[in-house]
Specification:
alpha/beta, Rossmann fold, Arc Repressor Mutant, subunit A, 2 domains
């Protein structure tokens, strides 16, 4: 797992023992890990260093996980950091709220460490530009640049999470072709597809909102999936 050796993960949980256990498991896989029990410790750390991914518990003293995620995604310096939320709340509304705030994934506790590490590997694989691919212009107003991992609508840069960008890149790879939710999940997670297709609907909704007028290019094909069409 040479590609993971230098990856730095921040773990935030109000239970010090949970932080310790997660940290030990991730270090066994070659990750560098920094643990925190509240928002204050996390943001103090972020002033000095930028992690490759943040594992964020929902129930925290002071600022909760939702507030922290919102603050991260609203700051340009931190908005590109992938976030995986951990929570004891299994309700769909909680999952949707977390994804709506820009988190890349949401796991319900207790979860196995194998599942957590699978999600981490999947998100990190989507964490940066591939270095290949040409710019794609859609509807004369949206430019998708895979090399720069960047999207512009009417000349303005749109801040997308890694997951949102990957979904848009997937749909744009074959304009007009319908992608089922399963196929999009496979594109994002590969063999480690361990999430439900409802996740895709939430990310698509968020993506459309961020793209503004270009959001209408993402079409829903009822009962099948989604496509990108001018």
């Amino acid at each position: 797992m040479a590609e993971q050796i230098e990856k730095l993960i921040a773990v935030v949980d109000d239970d010090p023992e949970m932080v310790k256990i997660i940290s030990l498991n991730l270090k066994e896989d070659g990750f560098r890990v920094k643990g925190f029990c509240d928002a204050k410790g996390l943001f103090k750390f972020l002033d000095k260093e930028k992690p490759d991914l943040i594992i964020l518990d929902l129930m925290l003293p002071g600022k909760d996980g939702m507030q922290i995620c919102r603050e991260l995604k609203n700051k340009e310096r931190f908005s590109s950091i992938p976030v995986i939320m951990l929570s004891g709340k299994a309700e769909e509304s909680s999952k949707v709220s977390g994804l709506d705030l820009g988190s890349d994934d949401y796991l319900v506790k207790p979860c196995s460490f194998n599942e957590l590490k699978a999600r981490i590997r999947a998100v990190l694989r989507r964490g940066g530009p591939t270095g290949s691919g040409k710019k794609l212009i859609v509807g004369k107003i949206m430019i998708i640049d895979p090399q720069r991992y960047e999207v512009k609508v009417k000349g303005n840069k749109v801040d997308l999470t890694t997951t949102e960008f990957e979904i848009l890149e997937c749909l744009s790879s074959r304009k007009g072709q319908v992608f089922t939710r399963d196929r999009i999940l496979e594109y994002l997670w590969g063999e480690e597809k361990v999430v439900v297709d409802r996740t895709i609907d939430v990310h698509i909704r968020h993506l459309r909102k961020k793209l503004g007028p270009a959001g209408e290019f993402i079409k829903n094909v009822r009962g099948v999936g989604y496509k990108l069409e001018e």
